[in-house]
Amino acid sequence: MKLNVLVFINALAVAITLGITNFYFSRNWFDVLQIFSISLITSFIVFYYLIEKYVYSKIKLIYKLINNLKLGRDLRDALGENMGSDPIHDVEEEVKEWAKQKKTEIDV
To answer: Would you say the pTM of this structure is higher than 0.85?
Structure first.
């Protein structure tokens, strides 16, 4: 699941909850629409920033550690930072490759 979809679903849940709560107390559709829109936009921005900053930074750190362990210093210096725009996908591919190598080592 992409980050934008995950964040949007969470922001939508917050906005719906606040909209229903506001409708329960005020019964004014204009206020409900305003609260829904503002809370959807605000929670999307906040959730996106928090997840992007915290989770992706941790994944990038793990990915960098895996690469440093796998590559020798000379090869690492020659390649430089070779990280794609989607570190979650990169880490997933690295783990699959590592698992295949370990399975081959065990079988042999």
So the answer is: no
